Amino acid sequence: MAPFAYDEIGYWSEIKLDVVRKYASAYSRIMTAQPAITKHIYIDGFAGPGRHIARRTGQFVPGSPLNALEVKPPFGEIHLIDLHRSRVAELKRQIGYRSDVFIYEADANHVLLDKVFPRCLYEDFNRALCLLDPYGLNVDWRVLQAAGEMGSVEIFYNFMIMDANMNVLWRNPDNVAPTQSERMDRVWGDDSWAEVAYVERPTLWGDTVGEKAPNEAIAEAFRKRLQHVAGFKYVPKPAPMINIRGAVIYYLFFASPNETGAHIVEDIFNTARRKGIA
């Protein structure tokens, strides 16, 4: 059998993994210290094969699932989801059998709502940290809405602005394929993204012309949706993940029902910014 071909990741992805790893450790310590909490759970909706290759060094880098397995004190359960069979097979090979680890080969949008989130109910005194690190515009808004309404789930979410810009947020929206607009509807929760993405600017002749809004405006509108529509109480300003060409690939959001978690993540984000992601 040929060796598994791991993805190469850029420096920004290494920083993202470090951000999530640091917070997962802090989160687990806080939850373990609360006697009222029955169980705290780690969820990765797009788990991948478990590790990557750093583009800048050529060395292996542990992915978020392997980092979560190393957290002390440990999570009560770890749920890892990926749609691609080869990635799931490699993930299983690396982890082996563990009674506290559940691995799914399926669409995260369905598994989270049907199987995983029901294990994280507030009234059961369970809590969860969920990483949603999609490969594109792949997370349905209904997943974020459900997590926000539960009051027991904190999320890291990569809003894939580069995918949106390449396929949906064109200068002339009339040229965008309906299927691409529908993808954005699912990610945003409705079609109100168009009102945010395009703004009317006055011209010298007294009329107006539509222009695409900057990335920052779109990210801020999505942050407000997480807070005011999904119902997360605390949504700090997201961290833009920037490639070597200076383009924002995605915005790393954190959303939580807890003020303490938000403050911790803001500190971690600020440290990451000093490393050059923004």
Question: What would you say this structure looks like, in words?
Answer:
By secondary structure, the protein is of the alpha/beta class. It is built from 10 helices and 12 strands. It has a 7-stranded mixed beta sheet, sandwiched between helices. Helix 3 (85-95) links the parallel strand 5 and strand 6 (101-105). Helix 1 packs antiparallel against helix 10. 38% of the residues are buried.
Strand order of the largest sheet: 6-5-2-7-8-12-11
Q: Spans of 5+ residues with little confidence (pLDDT < 50)?
A: none
What is the count of helical runs?
10
**Class based on secondary structure composition and strand pairing:** alpha/beta
Overall outline: globular
Number of strands: 12
Terminal-residue CA separation? 41 Å
- Tally of structural domains: 1
Helix content: 40-55%
Name of the CATH first level: Alpha Beta
Structure described in brief:
This protein has 278 residues and is α/β, with parallel strands linked by helices. It has helices at 11-32, 64-69, 85-95, 108-116, 141-150, 161-167, 178-188, 193-197, 215-228, 259-277, and strands at residues 8-9, 39-44, 51-54, 60-62, 77-82, 101-105, 126-132, 153-159, 198-202, 208-212, 239-242, 248-255.
